[in-house]
């Protein structure tokens, strides 16, 4: 009889212990689930430089020089520049100097963007690392732009004679070119007017 009672007590203890362990495991699982639910999922979001930026369409021409503007798929598309005017209008340029000269003509300042030479992503001109190099660009300004310094350094190693520069240096060169263009246009207009004059009057003008 004592053996039977002892066996019953032993089985009771085992059952209580098992129930306790099950309850503990269930509680731990619920706590773990709560931790998972309360832990925010971190996702990397890479924001565009400016959501207003666009890509040039086929047939787009430079606002300043009226030459073809290349998209990112073209070899020369890496030199395309983009300006956003105060009214929100996007305008494109085949080379950075043209963008600065258009500002000169309009007498206003645009928000200016250029492409990263490595990725062709847009970046602001003011934030760009600028390198002057002896390379072909649409209007032969020879400037390339980088977001990362290490990419600029690598480019300079591969292109002898290239060097870091500033926007002010680009502005000086573009201004000189603009003045030369205006002088040529003035001379061309003068020659055309002389050609339209009667011979006697044209001789007097000479």
Automatic annotation (TrEMBL):
This is NosL protein. It holds the Pfam family NosL. PANTHER family: HTH-TYPE TRANSCRIPTIONAL REPRESSOR YCNK. The keyword Signal applies. Keywords: Signal. Residues 186-206 are annotated as: Disordered. InterPro entries: N2O_reductase_NosL. Residues 1-18 form the signal peptide.
């Amino acid at each position: 009889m004592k053996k039977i009672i002892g066996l019953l007590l032993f089985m009771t203890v085992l059952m209580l212990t098992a129930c306790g362990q099950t309850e503990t495991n269930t509680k731990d699982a619920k706590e773990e689930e709560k931790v998972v639910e309360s832990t925010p999922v971190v996702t990397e979001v890479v924001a565009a430089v400016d959501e207003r930026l666009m890509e040039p369409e086929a047939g787009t021409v430079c606002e300043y020089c009226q030459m073809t503007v290349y998209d990112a798929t073209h070899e020369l598309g890496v030199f395309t520049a983009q300006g956003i005017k105060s009214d929100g209008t996007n305008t494109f340029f085949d080379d950075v100097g043209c963008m600065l000269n258009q500002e000169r003509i309009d007498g206003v300042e645009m928000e200016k963007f250029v492409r990263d030479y490595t990725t062709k992503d847009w970046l602001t001109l003011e934030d760009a690392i600028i390198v002057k190099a002896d390379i072909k660009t649409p209007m032969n300004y020879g400037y390339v732009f980088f977001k990362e310094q290490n990419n600029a350094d690598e480019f300079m190693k591969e292109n002898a004679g290239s060097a870091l520069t500033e926007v002010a240096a680009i502005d000086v060169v573009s201004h000189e070119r603009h003045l030369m263009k205006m002088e040529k246009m003035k001379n061309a207009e003068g020659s055309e007017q002389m050609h339209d004059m009667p011979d006697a009057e044209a001789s007097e003008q000479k």
